[in-house]
Amino acid sequence: MNRVSQILSSPIEYLKGVGPRRAELLKKELNIFTFNDLLEHFPYRHVDKTKVNLIQDITSNSEFVQVAGVLVSLEVVGQKRGRRVVGQIKDKSGFLELAWFQGLQWVQKTLKTGSSYLVYGKVTFFKGNSQIVHPEIELLTEAVQEGKNYLEPIYSTTEKLKANGLGGRQIGKLTQMLLQALRENDLPENLPEKIIMQHQFINRFKAFQYIHFPPSADAYDQAVKRLKFEELFIAQLRMGLLKSRRHRYSKGVLFDKVGSLFNTFYEKYLPFELTDAQKRVIKEIRTDTGKGHQMNRLLQGDVGSGKTIVAVMIMLLAIDNNFQCCLMAPTEILARQHFDTLSKLLGKLPVSIQLLTGSTKAAARKKILSELSDGSLHILTGTHAVIEESVQFKNLGLVIIDEQHRFGVEQRAKLWEKAEPYPHILVMTATPIPRTLAMTAYGDLDYSVIDELPPGRQPVITVHRYETHRNNVMNFIRAEIDKGRQAYIIFPLIEESSKLDYENLMKGYENVKAYFPEPKYWISMVHGRQSSKEKETNMQRFVSGDTQIMVSTTVIEVGVDVPNASIMVIESAEKFGLSQLHQLRGRVGRGSEKSYCILLTGQKLGVDARERVQIMTTTSNGFIIAEKDLELRGPGDIEGTRQSGMLNFKLASIIEDRSLLSEVKTMSEILLESDPDLVSAENLQLKQFLQRQKGDPVWSIIS
Ligand code: ADP
Ligand code: MG
């Protein structure tokens, strides 16, 4: 290969001024292993070295300041953990305090009183005095001599690195040296000419120079514009290549006939008319599974949009084609409920269904395993228990995973290995992942969405009440129960193991009991500390209507379906995230009765909590809620997406750059459609670039 990959993939210790010790630190602290990693450690801001603040102008509103002056004192003060170095810098207008809590030796060794320094950092106020903790500091003469009158990059670093002479400024020096050593063909163009022209991008080599050391603010913007685009485009292209490869080369089981089970069910046993969205999704899946390649599809549909029936019909399709199916759910309650639903819906058809969970008895388990391997069992529903190694199918053709965000990528992979060729995978989720996020994190999956609720659903009336009005709320619940309805009362138990949360739940339960005394009222309680049997019994009593009230933690959150329950009270609602609130609310409004969701909170609400409550009371659209959730929490917090490195871009933000993201996605789709293997001359640079990114799954595909 050419020189490109060689120099940029050099280990960081080979860079002049780094050496083995600092290299170790760079790896550990900043994940910088190679020259290229350093090059992609972009500055988070630039300082204009021509702008020096006067100390007297610093106010409590000042954020980052730069001052030039003489270091007039430097001493170690404090004991043990309070031990620190404190210095004073003086310019013609006044004094400013500097403080170091770490790297004390380095500070004492390097800085000299009487010398002039240029100091940069964030101002904080300590006992009324302004100070900069861990400032960037360099000799003034040095700064002036080097003629640093440009925008100087500031890099993120860590205390440990700073203590070893690798502060933000020193990192900048290393980067500058690296850039000087690079030639234009070390950073060759990777985007097709057409795209560059269309967007008037500066070339790649320049972009890297400018993003670190811009000659002007405009040059910096140009560099960011180009590199951000590239970052998103390459990511989308990789995903697109994976998907396109699966479509063209993966072997998948073939569901090519619609048989008697599917038809009989459709004509005789379908309990309701399917919505148009359900019909469309079933058709999409039928088309996809009838092509001979493996389907790997994400099915999104808001709570209550009716994903189960879609799953049922697709399973019948699989069985019609002589394959077995597996339906996996994240909790035992949900798995059992699926089992019950399937048993009821398919009771009159020659289809065998079993449930396998952690609490399945040994004898029953043995029977299930033998029926699975001789092929007489058609559908296995269950929890994680179904992915254990001992569970072997005769001819698994379809795996459906409900509420996917609770399953890790690795667990999914385990399922794939249960058959060759791979079974079709359908991942169903009601955690409405915003589209931008879905297309980024799951860009290699096909995507279907049920964007319509079954007819006749009334929106759940959602209100906010302060805890001080609990009396009114309880009276309201009583009136509804007396009309024959049922109610959920949910307590926050974020950490199932937290003692405090648990005590709150018990207190809450006693409190509810006081309002609703036996024998007129009966209460179920479900929480994570119970055995699954206890949970089950309590749940069943509520489902069958023996109890009118379900006091529970969020274990009830996913999937549970009790149409007669029409009230959802969420205690300490301020402690829940938006998606969770939405999921909980989805437990009601499933029948024909008017339903209510009451968010109880304390008097004091933070800004974010207030906004969450406000959103919940004004919209019931899961996609809007998901977008808001993303805005409020950021992508890193969304369950199950954290491991997906796809969301951690260096420059782009999937929130701020979402319109660019969808533009880029379209562009990459168009490109792959016309040239799926990147063989044309105009895409050659792109192909070579992807090939250089070793360790990437795409690497082996397109070489
Ligand atoms: P989710 O998408 O949240 O898993 P479910 O599949 O549990 O939703 O469906 C929610 C409720 O709506 C169930 O009681 C189901 O029987 C009912 N349902 C589903 N589809 C329809 C439809 N097309 N018409 C009427 N009711 C439906
Ligand atoms: Mg469901």
Report on the structure:
By secondary structure, the chain is an alpha/beta fold. Among the domains are: 1-49 and 150-184, no CATH class; 56-146, Nucleic acid-binding proteins (OB fold (Dihydrolipoamide Acetyltransferase, E2P)), CATH 2.40.50.140; 260-289 and 305-429, P-loop containing nucleotide triphosphate hydrolases (Rossmann fold); 461-619, Rossmann fold (3-Layer(aba) Sandwich). It has 26 helices and 21 strands. The longest helix has 33 residues, at 217-249. The chain is globular, with a radius of gyration of 31 Å. The protein binds adenosine-5'-diphosphate and magnesium ion. The site of magnesium ion (MG) has 4 residues, from helix 13.
Q: Tell me the fraction of residues in β-strands, as a range.
A: 15-25%
Question: End-to-end distance, in Å?
Answer: 12 Å
* Helix amount: 40-55%
Give the CATH architecture of the domain at 461-619: 3-Layer(aba) Sandwich
Number-wise, the strands total: 21
By CATH, the superfamily of the domain at 461-619 comes out as P-loop containing nucleotide triphosphate hydrolases
Write out the strand line-up for the largest beta sheet, numbering strands in chain order: 11-12-10-13-14-9-15
Shape: globular
Low-confidence stretches: 638-645, 695-703
Quickly name the level 1 CATH class of the domain at 461-619.
Alpha Beta
Radius of gyration: 31 Å
Q: In DSSP terms, counting alpha (H) and pi (I) runs of 4 or more, how many helices?
A: 26
Bound ligands: adenosine-5'-diphosphate, magnesium ion
| Protein structure class | alpha/beta
The largest sheet, given as strand count, sense and whether it forms a barrel, is: 7 strands, parallel
Could you say what the CATH topology of the domain at 461-619 is called? Rossmann fold
Please tell me the overall pLDDT: 86
